[in-house]
Structure formats: structure tokens, C-alpha cells
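Practice problem 4.
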């Protein structure tokens, strides 16, 4: 499939990120399928699109659907004219019983989650002025506007959202408070295109916020999620402020495109309805804690088809801390593509070992290349799906024996650029050792084709 990244403020170019690369948390340079020479770009059909959920202009109909509990389940339709009922501040203060339920680890109802978290969810307007070449080669300025969602994470006014919501924005405005009627300017703190996460900030002492009760979210542990766990999404689809939808964790450890050539890994898949304008909004667990940031949908129709993806909170929280501290995130990079050894590979290529990571490709000039590691050659017969042959087999990395690509990615993820790592590998049946100095991950991958 050709993933299409669409973003409300600035047009993000259509990207064709190689599915052979995965962020691996922060590694972003290994692929988890078969190690093909040149890297295969597999997919689920040409009609499928991956769409980022920013929204450019307009207001459409939407519904808040509550199907979490059998008792008292209800459906509430938002008026199509854009008039949206919102609780008053008094109505969203929550109750003592709600707070006690969270303290005891008991699940809240979707209504209780909404009451607890919705005051922290904001509406983001982004204005972009871009210079484009028009008729006769004349440069013309074009202004575009778009919207997305976000959520407050602390008392200092920091707000987490998607990078594609605020990319290239010249002016940011945040709407919050009852009915999102209070509008304040915001400044960009930093973006991480590799995670599609950004942090912006509002002045919590702004006069416009007098009398507005600000609330911050708390993070949950996305690593403890299981398929079937109930989730809630809150955002501003089609400009309809603070819309709640419910669903479950449909799958875990998915991969989606980022705004770079690297994939975002360990992504949460959910069937909670998300639509344009939901980008940057929180995905919440049954206790109202953020366990992901809603980012993309997979669709054949162009709208929500029951499959949505959220960047996990384990990554979001770490990225947000780095952005607040330094304004950017630094990723370690190895620069390889490959796959784990399977019984089929052992048989087909007569491999001398039955576990390890078989390198299909080593990027030119990468740390792995400079350390002398070699990728394989394309299989004979022109079969693009066949694994590359003859590449080095990494047996251990930083003292850890490898059985999967995920293990390699996780180790690289735990490192910083400049760290030195010992690598044991097999070439032509002989065990060898080398030391790799991990580099700074680029935004683009150098292909060796």
C-alpha cells in the first residue's frame, strides 16, 4: 500500500516509507519481515490508505457512542450545524466516588472517564503560510488552516499533540474551557517527526484563562495493555469539540508510517472511532489515563473503517520529556535491514546456525557499514519476496544473543548516539567480532539499490 500522510495545516508530502524499516522504539533501522535485498514494500492491498487525522476546515456530523457497558448504554448525536453541547465546569468536576474508583484501580464508565479527562483535551488551530510557484514561475503565498486535538500534560501549559498537526505552522491557537470558547495563542516547543509527536505550550497565566479550570492528564502504562482492554478516545473530529468514542484494544505491536523514512513501532490498534480532527487526542484506558495518542486510520473508504492507530504512551511520555528539555529527540542509529532466522531460511540457504539476525541490507555510510558489516545479495530468479543471500548473521549485540529483530531494535533503542557496541557476527561460516559506534539517525534512508 502507499501510505498517505495528510495533515491539516501544511500539506505533508505523500510518503512511501519502506515497511522493511521499523523504529523499534528508537532504533528505526531494522525490518521485521523477511530480509529481502532492496527491502520489500508489502501491504494489505492497493486500496488501503494510511491517513493521518488532521482536519482542514469545515464541520460535519459526528456521534458520541457509548457501548462499553450494557447498563445504561446510550447514543448521543451531535447536531450537524456545529452546535455542540458541552458540560459546564461544574458538571465536569467529577465526584468523590470517581476519584476513589481510580485510586482503587477500579474501571470507570466512559461517562466518568469523560468527566475526568475532557477538561484537559484541547482543540488546536494551525495556520500555515507557504510559498509556492504559480503561473509563469511566479512565487505565491498560500495560507492554509487546519485543526487537531491535544491534551495538557502539566501545570506549565505543555500540550502533547501530533507533529503532523503543527508541522510548519506559523501561528498556533488553542481552544479550551467549556465548549472550547476560550482561545489562547500557543508556541511550539518541539517536534519529533519519527514518532509523529509534538509539544506546544500555552501561557497558563494569560488573562483569557481567568476563571478557566485547567486540568492535566496522567499517563498509563501502555506496555501492560492486552487485546480486548476497553479504551476511550476524546478529540475534535470534524471540529466537533470534545467528542468521546469507545472501543477496545484490537491489536498490539503494529507499525505505521512516521513523517520520516522510519516506521513507528509498538503502535496500538483500536476500533474506537477516530476521524479527521482526532489527531493528537488521547486514547485512554478504563481509569482515564493516557495510553496512546490517536494518529492514523487505515481505510478503504477514505473514512473510518474500524481500524485506528495510536502511538503508545511509553514512547509519547519519553518523547515529550525530551522535547520539553531540549526541543528535539536524538535517536541512536545502526543502519541495517534484516530479519530473524527461521527454519525455512536455514533449509533454503543452508545456514550454519538456527538463530540470529540475517542482514539483508546495510546502508551506505551507516555505523554498521563503517564497522564492516555486510548485507546480502538479491536472490536469483528475480523473486522480490525472496530473502537476500550471503549477508552477515549477527549472533550477539552488546553481549545479548539475538533471536529476533525486535531484540536488536530494543537494544539500539536503549542507546545514545556515540555509544560503542560490540557485535559478534558470522560470515562465511566464521565467527567475527567488531565494534560499532552508533550514529545519529537521519530522516532519510540511503538505499543501496
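Answer key:
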Amino acid at each position: 500500500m502507499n501510505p498517505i500522510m495528510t495533515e491539516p495545516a501544511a500539506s505533508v508530502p505523500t510518503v512511501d516509507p519502506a515497511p522493511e524499516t521499523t523504529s523499534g522504539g528508537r532504533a528505526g533501522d531494522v525490518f521485521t519481515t523477511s530480509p529481502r535485498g532492496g527491502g520489500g514494500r508489502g501491504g494489505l492491498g492497493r486500496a488501503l490508505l494510511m491517513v493521518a487525522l488532521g482536519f482542514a476546515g469545515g464541520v460535519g456530523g459526528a456521534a458520541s457512542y457509548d457501548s462499553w457497558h450494557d447498563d445504561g448504554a446510550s447514543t448521543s448525536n451531535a447536531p450537524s450545524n456545529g452546535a455542540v453541547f458541552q458540560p459546564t465546569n461544574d458538571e465536569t468536576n467529577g465526584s468523590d466516588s470517581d476519584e476513589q474508583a481510580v485510586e482503587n484501580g477500579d474501571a470507570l464508565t466512559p461517562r466518568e472517564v469523560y468527566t475526568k479527562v475532557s477538561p484537559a483535551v484541547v482543540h488546536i488551530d494551525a495556520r500555515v503560510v507557504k510559498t509556492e510557484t504559480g503561473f509563469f514561475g511566479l512565487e505565491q503565498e498560500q495560507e492554509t488552516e487546519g485543526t487537531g486535538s491535544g491534551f495538557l500534560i502539566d501545570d506549565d501549559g505543555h500540550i502533547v499533540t501530533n507533529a503532523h498537526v503543527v508541522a510548519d505552522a506559523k501561528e498556533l491557537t488553542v481552544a479550551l474551557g467549556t465548549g472550547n470558547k476560550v482561545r489562547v495563542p500557543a508556541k511550539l516547543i518541539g517536534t519529533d517527526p519519527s514518532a509523529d509527536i509534538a509539544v506546544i505550550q500555552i501561557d497558563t497565566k494569560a488573562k483569557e484563562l481567568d476563571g478557566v479550570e485547567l486540568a492535566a492528564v496522567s499517563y498509563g502504562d501502555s506496555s501492560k495493555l492486552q487485546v480486548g482492554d476497553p479504551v476511550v478516545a476524546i478529540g475534535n473530529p470534524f471540529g466537533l469539540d470534545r467528542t468521546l468514542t469507545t472501543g477496545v484494544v484490537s491489536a498490539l505491536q503494529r507499525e505505521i508510517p512516521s513523517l520520516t523514512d522510519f516506521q513507528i513501532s509498538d503502535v496500538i490498534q483500536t476500533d474506537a472511532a477516530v476521524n479527521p480532527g482526532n489527531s493528537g487526542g488521547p486514547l485512554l484506558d478504563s481509569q482515564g489515563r493516557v495510553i496512546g495518542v490517536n494518529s492514523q486510520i487505515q481505510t478503504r473508504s477514505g473514512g473510518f473503517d474500524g481500524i485506528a492507530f495510536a502511538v503508545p504512551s511509553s514512547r509519547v511520555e519519553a518523547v515529550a520529556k525530551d522535547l520539553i528539555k531540549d526541543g528535539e529527540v536524538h535517536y541512536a542509529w545502526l543502519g541495517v535491514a534484516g530479519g530473524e532466522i527461521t527454519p525455512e531460511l536455514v533449509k533454503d540457504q543452508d545456514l550454519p546456525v538456527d538463530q540470529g539476525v540475517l542482514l539483508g541490507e546495510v546502508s551506505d555510510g551507516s555505523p554498521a557499514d563503517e564497522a564492516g558489516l555486510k548485507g546480502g545479495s538479491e536472490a536469483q530468479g528475480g523473486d522480490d519476496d525472496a530473502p537476500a543471500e550471503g549477508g552477515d548473521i549477527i549472533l550477539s549485540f552488546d553481549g545479548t544473543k539475538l533471536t529476533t529483530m525486535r531484540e536488536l531494535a530494543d537494544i539500539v533503542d536503549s542507546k545514545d548516539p556515540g555509544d560503542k557496541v560490540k557485535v559478534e557476527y558470522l560470515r562465511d561460516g566464521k565467527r567475527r567480532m567488531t565494534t560499532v559506534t552508533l550514529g545519529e539517525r537521519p530522516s532519510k534512508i540511503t538505499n543501496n539499490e
